[in-house]
Amino acid sequence: MTMVIKIKMLYRALQRCMSSSAKAPFEITDMAAFMFTLQKSNSGSLNQVLQSILDSKLNLTHIESRPASLIDADKGFTFIVDVETPTSSSLENVCQKIKKVCGDVTLLGSLEVPWFPRRFNDIDGMQQLVRPLHSDHPGVNDPVYWARRQELGNIIRSCTLSSKIPIIQYTNEESQTWQTIYHALSPLYKKIACEEFLLNFKEMENKGLITENEVPQIANVNKYLMGKTGFQLKPISGMEKDRDFLNCLAFRVFPTTIHMRHHSQPYFSIDPDVAHEVIGHAPILADPEFAEFVQEIGLASLGATEEDIEKLMNLYFYSIEIGLIMNPAGDRRVYGARILSSVDEIHHALSIHPELRHFDPFQACNVKYHRKDLQSMYWFCEDFREAKILMERYASTLQRPFNATYDRAQKSIKVSHKVKSW
Ligand SMILES: [Fe+2]
Question: CDD domains, alphabetically (predicted)?
Answer without folding.
Answer: ACT_AAAH-PDT-like (cd04880)
